[in-house]
C-alpha cells in the first residue's frame, strides 16, 4: 500500500511542477487575454483567467462563491484519491491515473489559493471555433480519468475485491 501512495504522490509532484512552471512562464511573458499563434489555424498560447471549472464551466465574474466551492471540491477529490489508493486501486495503471488526477487537482488548487482563479493557456481551435482554453493540470486530470475509465471497462475484474 505504501508503494501506491509514494508512486501516485511522485507522479502528482511531477504534474504539479510542470503545471506551475508553465503557468508562471505564461504570467511573466504574456499579458492577460494576450497570446501568440503556434500552429496557424489550430493552436495558440494564450493567457486566460478562469474563475470557473474545467473548460470555463461557471466562469462568471458575478458568481462570488466559486473559489470557495472549487477549493472545497478539490480537497474532497484529493481525499477520495487517497481513499481509492488505500483499497480499491491497486494496479499500476490505476495508481498512475490517480497520480495524474491528484497532480492536476493540486495544480489548479494552487492557482485558486494563490490567485482566486486558474491560469489557462492552451488554445486549440479550428477557424472560428475555439475549445475553451486549458492547462497542464487539466490535461493530467482528463488523462487520469480517461485511463481509469478505460481500464475499469476493459479489465473490470482487476478492480474488484
Could you please describe the fold and organization of this structure?
The structure is a single chain. It contains four helices and four strands; from the N terminus they run H-E-E-H-H-E-E-H. The chain is globular and about 45 Å long. Helix 3 (about 90-115) packs antiparallel against helix 4 (about 135-155). Strands 1-2-3-4 form a four-stranded antiparallel β-sheet. About 60% of the residues lie in helices and about 15% in strands. The protein has a domain at about 1-30 and about 50-65 and about 70-115 and about 135-160. The chain is of the alpha+beta class. It has helices spanning about 1-30, 65-90, 90-115, 135-155; strands at about 35-40, 45-50, 120-125, 130. The longest helix is centred in the N-terminal third of the chain and has 28 residues, at about 1-30.
